[in-house]
Amino acid sequence: MDQSQGAPPLDYPIAAPSALDPPDEWARLRSECPVASIRLPSGDGAALLTRYDDVRQVLADPRFTRQLDADDAARLSDNASGGVFNSSMASALPQTGEGHRRWRLMVSKWFTAKRMAALRPRIEAMADELIDRMTANGQPADLKAALGFPLPVWVICDLLGVPDSDRDRFSYWSDALLNLTRYSDDAMRTAQAEFVEYMSGHVRDRRAGTGDDLLSELARATDGDGEPMTDRELVATGMGLLIAGHETTANMIGKMTAMLLADRRRWQRLLEDRSLVRTAVEEALRFDANSGFGMPRYLTEEAEVGGGTLQRGTTVVCSMAAANRDEDAFDEASDMVLGRSPNTHLAFGSGAHSCLGQSLARTELQTVLEVLLRRLPGLELDVEAADLERVEGLIVGGLRELPVRW
């Protein structure tokens, strides 16, 4: 592992100068120390990758696994549970091989372009309702609390057939299961147990009913060999969709809006040319310097990465956000180019474990941006961009709040 001439390990996550800016260390690491030694919140050591080609290589290499509960794997946090990466979800669903391929194939059939297009009017109506409430309460307002946070959980509850009255519970469970340092180990275990108990009952109801939501359809579906998902797999699938589909998208709505308003020429350009919405969303995903922990992997055998050798048993953290700022992969990587195309960013990962719900996330982000441009063309930050504060203690990155006026 590259120790950068014997330098001590960097504390990880690496501090950044502001909520929207990347750590100054990223550029140096990409240039001088592509495989860097880091110390995780647990105190354990790991290797950090920051170059685009290295991150892409590792995410696609089956030797770098999600076996983060191995005896010699680094603990990500000081909580014994290890958070979402070591939850019942991680053990209930097959992580590699044919079992994983089978599961992804069954679930991915639901996330088709046709289904996503059909969801747009519903998502648009939800966004309009939330903006109505926000504007009725007057300005300034916290756009994250008013729109960014509730919208994705409404969408996920809708997809899973969960009653509107249970949305707040889902929000809390999502938050707790993405913990690094914010919640105690007991709180995380309690949240996980509550979620599993709730979803187990919900899955039984879905099996007995004739609903057209995702879980109902998966409960009736079979794979190519005629095998249905087990109840445990269905519960874990619901948990995975909640975690992947709520917190990450909720925070991205806030960050995307903040990025566009931090230099209001960007917002004005979108007002003048709405055809840029799709590429602007992709560029916000690439440009996001506050995406959170990154993607951890456990190495099952020796491998060459970044011009050096990593030993079996190494825990590797892939920083997709740092890789997305790599000048060797993107022209003008440090600038937000709204019309950038193609845009082969790694925000959704790469390879066999790339984000299954990325089409849903894109649909939500594009729809929310279109609604904001239509409803609040005069939208602006109510604080200086440099004064925005990061969320701390969670696996995903985000803003504590997004004060706006319109």
UniProtKB/TrEMBL annotation:
Keywords annotated in UniProt: Heme, Iron, Metal-binding, Monooxygenase, Oxidoreductase
InterPro entries for this protein: Cyt_P450, Cyt_P450_B, Cyt_P450_CS, Cyt_P450_sf
One Gene Ontology molecular-function label: oxidoreductase activity, acting on paired donors, with incorporation or reduction of molecular oxygen
Keyword Repeat set for record: no
Top-level division of the source organism's lineage: Bacteria
Pfam families linked to this entry: p450
Cofactor: heme
Stored SUPFAM superfamilies: Cytochrome P450
Family: Belongs to the cytochrome P450 family.
Protein name, as recorded: Cytochrome P450
Species, as recorded: Streptomonospora alba
